[in-house]
Amino acid sequence: MALMLDGAALLNQSIHNIDTSEIRKMFDLAAKIERPLNLSIGQPDFPVPEPVREAMIKAVRDNLNSYTPTAGILPLRQAIAEKWRTHNGFTVEPENIIVSTGVASILFLLFQAIIDPGDDILLVDPYFLIYPALLKYQQANLHTIPENFTAADIDHLLASGVKYKAIIFSTPSNPTGKIFEREQLAQLVRLAQSTGAVLVSDEIYEVFDYENKFVSTASLYPEGTLTLNGFSKSHAMTGIRVGYLGAPANLAPIVQKMATLQQYSVVCAPQPGQWAAITALQTPVVEEMKLMRRRRDLVAGLLKGVARYPSPDGAFYIFPEVPIESRQFAEAAIAERLLIVPGYIFSAHSRNVRISYAQKEEILEEGVQIFRRLVERFRG
Question: What residues contact residue 155 under an 8 Å CB cut-off, 6+ apart?
């Protein structure tokens, strides 16, 4: 008689470090709640711009549906390189750019390529939840520095003697919306140069820059920065799945190994989406950003005097403090049809929640009023 296999026993040990994200749980909950006020999902509610849609449709009709070179079609990599040169102030050659199925896949390939068990990695806290999840899978040692860090904090890290393999952050930030000041980025450069770390700058929310203060990290430290970006947020291409990474020539072996891994996993980003991405680089989203800024101002105004939060310079999130543990607060909000994300998944500090304002104004107003009532209830 054949033995009955036990699926749980077949899992490798590292996979237990990864669990279903709280954001995905909220997404699933929204499907079950009647008339949910969903302020949890980081997905723009505006449509993919028409020129981008038409470019993708044309690619399909022109039968551009086959495999592409593993690193992505050359015209897209050339367009990305030109965008960085003319708009962001640094140079990356097209052969040192890799395109994949969104920044999430880019991160997975990158961490597989450069992180060994026991490597010391620095995250800026709060951080996007995928960073620690994938790094724990790689069995890295995680360290954090607060988002409002100063030169003194960098001095403290240098005094510890830790040699970081990578320093990872997003600007604008998910979950707080903070855009790092040029001086802060310069301090991260100082830390990287002193410890031999590579800077991993996730710039997926770059275009959501309401205060005109965004600076690409590679413009300050081109030889030591890996730059990540994509189209899911800026052009609402969340389901089309196109993201990319660029490296200076001295870090080109990282891109080459990522491409090798991609051959055996993702294979390539969908070709029609890559052609659409070229058009996206040429399609401004000015009106969409005006809309998102109005929503930022609306939510910030409704929260004024009710909860403290880091300055939401960009992206489409606010990260307010709450009077109780974030998981408990989020559960209470669900009972009121309000879906928000508990902050403990983004930070070692668990008394914040993430509110996404990528929603219609009437939903934001009703949702934030519920949030206010919950704060007052638990504070009282």
Answer: none
pTM greater than the 0.70 cutoff? yes
Contacts 24+ apart (CB under 8 A), 342-350: 342/22, 343/126, 343/175, 343/319, 345/21, 345/22, 345/23, 345/129, 346/126, 346/127, 346/128, 346/129, 346/174, 346/175, 346/319, 347/125, 347/126, 347/127, 348/125, 348/144, 349/125, 349/126, 350/325, 350/326
Which of helix, strand or coil describes residue 325?
coil
What's residue 34's pLDDT? 82
Residue 117 CB burial class (10 angstroms; 0-12, 13-18, ≥19): exposed
Domains of the chain: 17-48+285-379 (3.90.1150.10), 65-281 (3.40.640.10)
- Helix residue spans in the chain (DSSP H): 7-10, 22-30, 50-61, 74-83, 102-114, 130-137, 151-160, 182-195, 252-263, 271-281, 286-303, 326-334, 361-379
Q: What is the distance between the alpha carbons of residues 356 and 295, in angstroms, rounded to a whole number?
A: 10
Query: What pLDDT digit, counting tens, does each position of 96-114 carry?
Result: 999 999 999 999 999 999 9
**How far apart, in whole angstroms, are the C-alpha atoms of residue 180 and residue 38?**
28
Q: Are strands 341-342 and 338-339 parallel, antiparallel or unpaired?
A: unpaired
364, 298 Cβ separation under 8 angstroms: yes
Which two tokens mark 262? 């991609």
Q: Is the pLDDT of residue 192 over 90?
A: yes
Q: Do the Cβ atoms of 343 and 350 come closer than 8 Å?
A: yes
As given in the structure block, the two tokens for residue 283 are: 């399609």
Give the residue among 319, 339, 315, 320 at the shortest CA–CA distance from 25: 339
The two tokens of residue 310 are 């880091």
> In 3D, which of 43, 16, 24, 19 has the Cα closest to residue 235?
43
**pLDDT digits 0-9 by tens, 198-250:** 999 999 999 999 999 999 999 999 999 999 999 999 999 999 999 999 999 99
Give dist(CA 40, CA 359) in Å, integer: 10
Q: Is the pLDDT score of 350 beyond 90?
A: no
Query: Is the distance from CB of 70 to CB of 259 less than 8 angstroms?
Result: yes
